[in-house]
Design goal:
Elements: H1 2-7, H2 17-35, H3 46-58, H4 62-72, H5 77-98
Transmembrane segments: 49-69, 81-99
Keywords: Membrane, Transmembrane, Transmembrane helix
Protein name: Solute carrier family 43 member 3-like isoform X2
């Protein structure tokens, strides 16, 4: 929602920017907490998976530098944020449809199957 609000904000609808930025800042941590149980599938490198998730969220602010550079190169801000919205939808669908309904246990039982 935050990326869509930024994409469709204009000078006339600048009041969309405050809730958009709030949604962007809160949205990342929700995905991290929701997907943190994936680490339990990788018993030998759990800390690496956690580090990759946290690093991806922490480095997401660098994406705005890329958007700034693309804007200077002629790509519209709206198309950049619509692309980000499409990527967020893919991640959201992956979270809802590929994660198990229950918590992934640790340590994994011998008979545990995923998928």
């Amino acid at each position: 929602m935050g990326t869509l609000m930024v994409a469709f904000s204009t000078a006339a609808f600048s009041n969309l920017l405050f809730p958009a930025v709030s949604l962007l800042s809160v949205g990342d941590i929700v995905f991290v907490i929701t997907n943190m149980q994936v680490e339990n599938l990788f018993s030998s490198c759990r800390s690496t998976v956690i580090t990759l998730y946290n690093g991806a969220v922490d480095s997401s602010s660098a994406l705005f530098l890329v958007i700034k550079l693309l804007r200077e190169a002629g790509v519209s801000l709206r198309s950049s944020f619509l692309f980000m919205s499409a990527c967020s939808v893919i991640h959201l669908l992956r979270t809802f449809f590929l994660l198990p309904r229950d918590h992934i246990p640790y340590p994994l039982p011998e008979d545990y199957t995923y998928g």
